[in-house]
Write a structure and sequence with these properties.
Blueprint lengths: L4 H38 L5 H16 L10 E5 L1 E4 L2 E4 L1 H5 L4 E6 L6 H14 L4 E5 L7 E6 L4 E5 L13 E4 L6 H4 L3 H30 L2 H4 L5 H17 L7
Parallel strand pairs: 1-5, 4-7, 4-8
Antiparallel strand pairs: 2-3, 5-6, 6-7
Helix pairs in contact: 1-6, 2-4
């Protein structure tokens, strides 16, 4: 590969540059999304008391009076990603096998993720283990929560992770907790922030796709010198070790 050294370095440099641009635009998208949410908070248009009451009703519906000793165990994960092929998620694999889903919809800033987190925290406090699934754009935000012991999940089911309801699912819209008369005077700000968010997200995805395409060019330099048989053998040895440890499917 020595004759290709300068080209390989050039490609690596360009790939890094494109990824930096992608992250810049995604940062702008995240900040614009925050502006949309703050518009509702600044006008005191969100009924937090109503959200708290709704959270308590959901917990009562999901658990009844059941409580366990001690505090549950929390796992923090991601179910979605901003990737070179666009926005993607694996919610279909998470919802498979669940007996009931609470699907929460509503516009940005109306308390969707706040409601999910309140419910998840309350269930955790009653001794059940909870899987918290974070937002890939803003990791401090909880988009979804699943309680495997109950076969129940609580999902922010608005774009870009839309879920179709099954029989027995509960549908909730957090728009009922917003005073739109108070919010109306900031409609222009919120609309502008929404447009900035959409453009920045699209640009971030475009630069990420370009970065991936540029990085893929490296394969033509590396492939002729790769020992793929050795890689396959290593993969099989690693899989065998995992299965020996009892970490395979169904364990």
């Amino acid at each position: 590969m020595v004759p290709h050294k300068s080209r390989v370095l050039e490609i690596n440099h360009e790939t890094s540059r494109l990824f930096r641009r992608a992250y810049d635009y995604l940062s702008i998208a995240e900040k614009a999304n925050g502006v949309i949410e703050s518009a509702i908070k600044d006008t005191v248009a969100l009924d937090y008391r109503g959200l708290n009451e709704q959270a308590a009703l959901i917990v009562a519906d999901a658990l009844g009076t059941e409580t366990r000793e001690g505090y549950g165990t929390a796992r923090h994960l991601f179910a979605s990603a901003i990737s070179p092929v666009g926005l993607s998620n694996h919610l279909d694999t998470l919802t498979w096998g669940l007996h009931r889903k609470y699907l929460i919809t509503g516009k940005p800033g109306t308390g969707r993720t706040t409601l999910v987190k309140k419910v998840a925290d309350a269930i955790l406090g009653r001794g059940f283990s909870v899987e918290y699934y974070h937002c890939c754009l803003d990791p401090d935000r909880i988009d979804h929560a699943i309680v495997q012991e109950l076969g129940t999940g609580f999902f922010n089911a608005s774009e870009p992770h839309v879920l179709m309801p099954d029989a027995g699912d509960v549908l909730l819209n957090t728009g009922q907790f917003v005073d739109y008369d108070r919010l109306q005077r900031l409609d222009g700000e919120a609309q502008e922030a929404q447009e900035v968010y959409s453009r920045a997200l699209d640009d971030g995805l475009m630069f990420m796709s370009l970065a991936k395409r540029t990085h893929d060019e490296l394969e033509k330099y590396y492939s002729p010198y790769m020992d793929f048989a050795a890689i396959d053998a290593r993969r099989q040895r690693t899989l065998d070790r995992i299965l020996e440890m009892g970490l395979g499917p169904g364990s």
